[in-house]
Structure formats: structure tokens, C-alpha cells
Amino acid sequence: MQPVFPKSASILRRLRIYPLANGGCDLLNAGVLQQQTIGKPVSYSGMGLHSGNPVEMTFLPAAPNTGICFRRVDLDGKPEVEARVENVSETNRSTTLSKGNFKVQTVEHVLAALAGCGVDNAVVELDANEPPVGDGSAREYCRMIESAGIVPQADRREPYTVTSPIELQMGETVMSIFPHDILKVTCTSADKQGRFTQFYSVEISPKTWERELAHARTFCFYEEIEFLIKNGLIKGGSLENAVVIREDAVLTNEPLRYPEEFVRHKILDIVGDLSLLGRPLCGHLIAVKPSHTANCELTRQISAQMRKPLQVAQTFAPPPAVVKASAMTELSSIEAVVQDGRTLDIAQILKVLPHRYPFLMIDKVTKINGNRIIALKNVSVNEPYFQGHFPNHPIMPGVMQLEAVAQAAGILMLKQVENAGKLAYFMSAENVKWRKPVRPGETLIIEVELTKSRGKIGRAKGVCKVDGEEVSEAEVTFMLVDA
Question: Which residue ranges form the domains of the chain, and what is each CATH number?
């Protein structure tokens, strides 16, 4: 059955199309070389799929190079989180972005609509923690974009083309992406029993996005519903916004919109999760039983490959006179050391941080995960500052705890190859609180989340603990400079 389309003007008629001069990657917009945003604010209200909360969502135009940013207008300060894979915190049945103490869940359909329609820069305002689910597809979001119009911007679009194959296997999920001149997705979906196995392959463009993917609704199997409810999910779910499969029957309030609606929705999710790369993507992705967890992990691996040319460029650039011949090898080793899932001993920390005795405030890194890090400092009575702070009542200075937070944040910044070998200068410290003295013999646990990393500016929130109890916290901002 063919999908039902809006009677209003096609999104395609609102796109500005430009020919490719060099035959390069055209990605989603059939040759659009400029970045694009929406023409005016547009809003839509509804209910969140998993939270069940009523919510109003507004798409706003944004400046070039902003990317897609989610803003919580219901929270103090209207905090924002960028739609980047570094900010992904949960992937259980949906993709959740977090920064600091707030989050936005189930972002994948909104991201897919913006990417599919060719919107590079936009702010998504929400007055709750989850976008409205609509009918379970991306149809309503596409109507919003169509109503707002799409406007070209002065800055050039910079798509990334996969340079070599990347393969990923996670449980039953197998994903591989290969070099290709546009984004193409070939997908097979099925449940654990192999029911409703479907296959579909499509090259993504505004035309194919609108006709072949945007209207595919989310779905689940009947036996999953009890588990989802017990885990606090699908509170807003119904046959109005999802398709339910029960044995060999399909429960829906209207006929299926596509013969392969289930696998097409899986591709819709993939388009949304891949957009977390932060740049348009060119490559042929082959996916078997994809999931949000695997989608985001593949995006991380593509991001890592994307950073490699920066390292190569550094290798072939004339080094400054003060840099030793082995400097580039050292930068390469830093990237190998600072990776997700790694622990760092003191020898590895000394390769990453420029600090030395008596100002090195990190003894070990116990966990690195995305934009979060956990480190520790063994507070010894031999610390030189105890001679004067205070001779008969030794207490670790609060500013040293602040320095420990900054050094842990510096390690996170050095995960990015382009930052290797740089120094971080303090710019400001805000919301600093010291709650309890830290004394010799105690172990300071430093938990830091990198909340902003754009260009030379970094911002992080850190909490220091002793025996599980918070002793200090702060938000620090710093600037990266060449060493």
C-alpha cells in the first residue's frame, strides 16, 4: 500500500538545489552545497511516547555551524544540549541526550526529520523531557519543516564520506558501512523468532525520505509491552502512535502505510542516530537487526575515523621549531591512550597531561565513557601544601580540588585529536561549593562531565567525593591554547 502524503506543497519545492561542481558527495539534498536552516519558528503539541508527558515543541532557525540543539524551556536557565553522539546517555528503546542534570529522550525521530529534509542548523525547544510522538512516525515533524520553509545559509556544508569500511557486531546486530557517494541504507529487520523479517534498501535524498521513510511508524511486539511498562516506558503509547504485532496479526488503527513499514521505520531511526555525527554523511550502510545502541556506537566509530585526517595533516605539516621530531608520535599515542572504556595509570596520565609534581592532581583514571570521566587522587600527608594548610590541622585546599576537576576535564578534551598537545587555561569557575574538609589518608574521587566542547572553548561540571559523599562541586570554563 502506498503511503498517505500531506496535501500541502511538497518539501522538495522549498529546497534550494545547486549542482555539484566537483562530482562530490551530495548526501541528502541532491547537490545542496550550502548549509540550511528553517525559515521561521513553528510549533507542535502532543504527548511524549515513553514519558506520557504533555509537551509543546518549537523548531527555531539557527545560525550557521550551530547544528541541531535541544533546549528545555521548562527548566531554570533554559539549558541546551547539542545533538552530538558525545552527549548520548541512554539507548534503551530510544536515544537520549544528556548534559549536566537534564536530559531529552526519544530524539531520533525529530533528528531524522531534520536530517532527511536537509536542515543543518536548528534549535528544538521543549517544555518537557521528550518530543511529542505524533503518530509514531516523522510525518508531523516534516509538516512542521514544510510549514516553516527551508532557507540556505552562507556557510558551506561539509559532508563526511566514509574513507574505509567499518564493521560492528553487538549481539544479534551486525552493521557495516562502506565508502559511497551518497548516504545509502540497506537494512534487514526481524524479531528474535525471525517473525516479520523484512528487507529494504534506499538511497537517502529529500524525495526518497519524504516518500519512502518519513511516514513509517514505530512498532513493538505484544509480548514486549509488559516489560516496557514495568520499566517505565511507553506511558504515552497507543494504537494512535504505534503498530503492535501479536503473533501473526498486526494491530493498527489504519492499514500499513508501506509493505515493509517495520524495516523502513528501522531505517528512519538509523537516519536520526547517524545525524548525531554532527555532519552530513556519505556511505553505504548495511544493517541486520539494528538498534539504537548499535546505531550510536557505529556513529562513534565513524566520528573516530573522521578525526583521523586531522592527525595525518598534523603529521605532514612543518612542525614548530620548538617541537621535537618525536612530537607527532606522542600525539598519536595520546589518542590511543584516551579512549572510551579505558583506565589510565599514572604513567599514561603523564603522557596526556602536562602537569608535574607538585601540581598533578590525578593519580588514576578509573573510567572514560563518552563525555564523562571518573578519576581519583590519593591524598597523602606528604602533599607539600599541608606544610602551611594547616600545620596542626591538615586540610586539602579547595582550589586543589577545583584543579583536579579541571585536569580530569582536560583529559576528556584530549580525546579529540585536534586538541592533542594543547594546554587549557582557566577562564572561569561558577557554582563552586565546598561541603566537607578533605584530610590526609582519604581518596578523592573526581567525577567530571564535559558539557561543552566547541572550538577552543570547553566547559565541564565536576563533583568530588570521599567515601561516596560529596565534598565539593564546580562548573569550570577553559580555553585551549597551543603549548
Answer: 11-305 (3.30.230.20), 327-482 (3.10.129.10)
